[in-house]
Amino acid sequence: MKITEVRIRKLSVEGKLRAYATVTFDNCFVVHNIKIIDGKAGLFIAMPIRKTAEGTYMDVAHPISPEFRTELQDTIISEFNAGHVEVVSNPEDMLD
């Protein structure tokens, strides 16, 4: 599975949550709302989540292998660091 497109929407205010990414795979499958977070060890991604009826949170979609997770994270962070972002002032506009 190849990453064929990465779109990043950066929040214009400062905070740990820096942006949301939308990633397209093989031009036929898309995952929205991947968070780019600034942590103690640098930037990392968090996959989209949903709240269950029990009140816990679960990933909506996530990589199965550590190698693909690393590839996905590296690609998203590289695009973010290269400045390939759309700046959004309203956090509500960041959700697809």
Q: How much of the residues is beta strand, in percent?
A: 35-45%
DSSP E strands, number = 7
Oligomer: single chain
Helicity range: 10-25%
Major sheet: 5 strands, mixed
Shape: globular
Rg from Cα: 13 Å
Strand order of the largest sheet: 4-3-2-1-7
CATH superfamily: Stage V sporulation protein G
Secondary structure tally, helices:
1
Number of domains: 1
CATH architecture: 2-Layer Sandwich
Average pLDDT for all residues: 91
Determine the CATH topology.
Arylsulfatase, C-terminal domain
Unreliable stretches covering 5 or more consecutive residues:
none
Structural class by SSE content: alpha+beta
| Helix-strand string | EEEEEEHE
How far from one another are the termini? 23 Å
CATH C-level class: Alpha Beta
Outline:
This protein is an alpha+beta fold. It is 17% helix and 45% strand. It has one helix at 66-81, and strands spanning 3-11, 17-25, 29-39, 42-46, 49-51, 57-59, 86-88.
